[in-house]
Design goal:
Structural class: alpha+beta
Helix content: 40-55%
Shape: globular
Strand content: 15-25%
Largest sheet: 5 strands, mixed
Oligomer: single chain
CATH superfamily of one domain: Hypothetical protein af1432
Number of helices: 27
CATH class of one domain: Mainly Alpha
Radius of gyration: 30 Å
Number of strands: 21
Strand order of the largest sheet: 3-4-7-6-5
């Protein structure tokens, strides 16, 4: 951060922003504590005086912006506003938590302390630190939810000002935001913030695609809003006649959600039909339930417009796990366009906009715990036994952040909420880990089903158990919830500890019985690990304990007979070093050291496959938006930016992420696979092949075609130079008569 005196103009700008914060606060129903907020602002202003952000603006503008998001978009009160204003003071200045407590009280100091603990982003540089930092973030949910809410506001402002950061930092922060913060905002009911975080992440990860969709959206927005006015006119008249006080608002899909739909449905921008939705927010009459009045408005709308029978969503009878309540219906407008209508009361709308803060405000007693409260309680259970591996820990927890819900029933008729895609085994672990471990199957609607059965809304499920049943590794393929995955991991860790203990005992016995090995356990273990390509002793002991590795030939492995192969160093070369040979001779093998250099790399025809390696998981080619990841051996792997594995790497190993650009000249060709679907007519395949080989002079490596009921499907493996050539080819194939779909797929 830079430091220099503020100009009079900057001081005026800071004062205007503070007055805007007080104005936002004045428009809330919170008990007004402006003196406390003013005190916190003056303290933060003094603490950060002269300090500037990377963009050059005064640093104090950041905590002011975070405080405004807290009050305006989340609905938090004076305690949170003060904590937001002070959230960077302890980390960035000489003031301590004790100073904050003395001036502002223990509660504000406690929240600031929670924010300081997780200030370096959710993830550190090392795997163990990542798991621990993420665990700290989640622990604050159960200690004081406001810490996470302020942290989400902090992340939102950082994303809004991400343009001043270098490219590789943008990748790290955007990836972390997409992977953790957007799902957290979603789960806590902060839908507008979740949408903006996703959109901003997408903008920095795929700037060209974002701009293209944004420009197309701008060109049609005027006509969409014109259609909106025509569409809502009869609805407004009907609601007026029913005597309701209400507001109508048009909601345009975000760029990211449009792109996601385009990818999911493999369609063009022009084919995304539900770009606009209409939101009705009304003040309900006290003489009738909110639910009944929502359905009355639904009836009025469906008398005007015809509803889509499969696009009705009743989130009133069964609210979402994040507290969201509304009634959604998609209807056909007069111009033949499908439009979604969302019906909410004032209370439902405040919960939808402000999430958890509003949800808590409307609680009436101890007995009305929502699914959100239950989820927050589950966090404590997951944290009680966190996974040792950071990547697994993140993946396990994230499983349930974005999941939609299905509602199922116990044999006694009790309703249970499960994430969509949950299995019978997930349900067993939901009831209790003991039931999960001994589950042999289930009865769904009185019919026997396997562990892997996916639950559907309305299913009545009874779990069957047996004391002789125990989990197998295959069960990990049958679970989708964090609770079940965590329960299985706990069981496997318990079993692994038994095998490790037994394996170490067997090795000790083998060493004791061989006089050449006796007293040299470290050397023996090092050479056995090297021989079996294992990275740590626990892994080796577990294999021995399970009988997968036998110790009969231990002596020959530790002291091998040296034949002709040992004099040719490149044969059998390993990535890990061999321990010194008997007699003090040194091993010729060395560990590869990580390469060092700038965080921007250029991919050329000369260095591809030598300095930089294209990852098999996403198969990037020149022209794709890519990044580099430096592994622990110093090898640089190139991934597509939207590769799922790269998403994990961005969040967890930010300092090893490199911005990458292509500078190739069509020297090397790359194998790409395309998928085609179309009408099975005579000659259509000939036309496609002619387009590929004659028009584009592209060589084919393999073709797989099948036909069924007049429809053909197939894949073709091609040699292409870059993404531009591939995109042009796909465009040309789409013009072939009777070709209905063609797309690039990952190899």
């Amino acid at each position: 951060m830079q430091k220099s005196e503020f100009t009079p103009e900057e001081d005026q700008m800071i004062q205007r922003e503070f007055e805007a914060l007080l104005d936002d606060y004045a428009h809330t129903l919170h008990r007004q504590k402006t003196e406390l907020i003013t005190h916190a602002f003056n303290f933060a202003y003094k603490a950060h005086y002269g300090v500037r952000r990377l963009s050059g603006e005064p640093y104090i503008m950041h905590p002011l912006a975070v405080a405004r998001i807290c009050v305006k978009q989340i609905g938090l009160g004076s305690t949170s506003i003060c904590a937001a204003l002070l959230h960077d003071v302890v980390e960035d200045t000489d003031y301590t938590e004790q100073d904050i407590a003395g001036l502002f009280g223990d509660k504000i100091a406690q929240i600031v302390s929670g924010l300081t603990k997780i200030s370096g982003g959710v993830f550190g540089e090392h795997a163990s630190e990542q798991a621990e930092n993420f665990r700290k973030l989640l622990l604050t949910i159960s200690e004081d939810i406001r810490v996470v809410l302020i942290k989400i506001a902090d992340r939102l402002h950082n994303m809004r000002t991400l343009g001043s950061q270098p490219k590789e930092k943008q990748y790290k922060i955007a990836g972390e935001t997409q992977y953790i913060y957007a799902p957290l905002a979603h789960r806590l009911g902060l839908f507008p913030i979740k949408t903006e975080l996703e959109d901003l992440s997408f903008k920095y990860e795929h700037p060209e695609t974002w701009q293209e969709i944004h420009d197309k959206l701008e060109t049609i927005k005027a006509s969409k809003l014109e259609n909106y006015e025509t569409f809502i006119k009869p609805i407004r008249e009907r609601l007026d006649s029913m005597g309701y006080t209400f507001t109508l608002k048009a909601r345009i899909k975000s760029v990211y959600s449009i792109w996601k739909k385009m990818v999911k449905q493999q369609c063009a921008f022009e084919d995304v039909y539900d770009i606009m939705a209409v939101r009705i927010v009304f003040t309900p009459s006290e003489s009738m339930s909110e639910k009944d009045q929502c359905w009355m408005i639904y009836s009025a709308i469906t008398e005007i417009y015809r509803p889509h029978p499969e696009r009705i969503r009743d989130w009133i009878s069964t609210p979402k796990a994040n507290g969201y309540e509304a009634l959604h219906v998609t209807v056909m407008g007069k111009n033949g366009e499908w439009i979604e209508v969302q019906i909410r009361t004032d209370r439902m709308n405040e919960i939808a906009e402000h999430g958890y803060a509003a949800h808590w405000k409307y609680k009436t007693g101890e007995s009305d715990d929502s699914e959100l409260d239950k989820w927050l309680q589950e966090i404590k259970e997951v944290l009680a036994h966190p996974d040792k591996d950071a990547m697994e820990f993140l993946g396990t927890f994230k499983l349930n952040l974005f999941a939609q819900e299905v509602f199922v029933f116990t044999p006694k008729g009790e309703i249970k909420t499960m994430p969509q895609g949950s299995t019978a085994l997930d349900f067993a672990f939901l009831l209790h880990s003991e039931i999960g471990e001994h589950c042999i199957g289930a009865k769904v609607n009185h019919t026997l089903v396997p562990l892997s059965y996916q639950l559907k809304g309305g299913d009545q499920i009874e779990i069957l158990t047996s004391n002789s049943q125990h989990p197998s590794k295959e069960w990990m393929n049958f679970v989708t919830t964090a609770k079940a995955r965590n329960g299985l991991n706990q069981y496997f860790r318990r079993e692994e500890r038994k095998y490790i203990k037994h394996g170490e005992r067997l090795l000790d016995d083998a060493i004791t019985m061989d006089k050449d090995l006796s007293g040299n356990k470290d050397l023996v273990l090092a050479r056995l690990l090297n021989y079996y390509h294992l990275s740590n002793p626990s892994e080796f002991y577990a294999e021995v304990g399970q009988g997968a590795i036998r110790l009969d030939n231990t002596h020959d492995i530790v002291y091998p007979k040296r034949g002709w192969r040992s004099y040719i160093p490149f044969i059998g070369k390993r990535d890990t070093p061999l321990p010194p040979l008997k007699g003090g001779e040194e091993s010729p093998h060395e560990i590869v050291k990580p390469k060092k250099g700038p965080h921007n790399i250029v991919l050329t025809d000369e260095n591809l496959g030598k300095e930089y390696f294209l990852s098999n998981c996403c198969h990037p080619i020149p022209g794709d938006e890519v990044l580099g990841f430096l592994d622990e051996t110093g090898k640089m792997h190139i991934h597509k930016i939207d590769c799922p594995e790269a998403a994990l790497l961005k969040t967890s190993y930010g300092k090893r992420i490199y911005a990458a650009t292509w500078n190739t000249h069509r020297v090397q060709s790359f194998v790409e696979t395309i998928e085609l679907k179309g009408i099975d007519k005579f000659g259509v395949l000939i036309q496609v092949l002619q387009t590929i080989t004659t028009d584009f002079h592209i060589n084919l490596r393999a073709i797989h075609i099948s036909s069924d009921d007049g429809i053909f499907k197939g894949t073709m493996e091609l040699y292409v130079y870059d993404k531009t050539e591939l995109d042009e080819l796909l465009k040309a194939i789409r013009k072939v008569d009777d070709i209905k779909e063609v797309r690039r797929i990952d190899n």
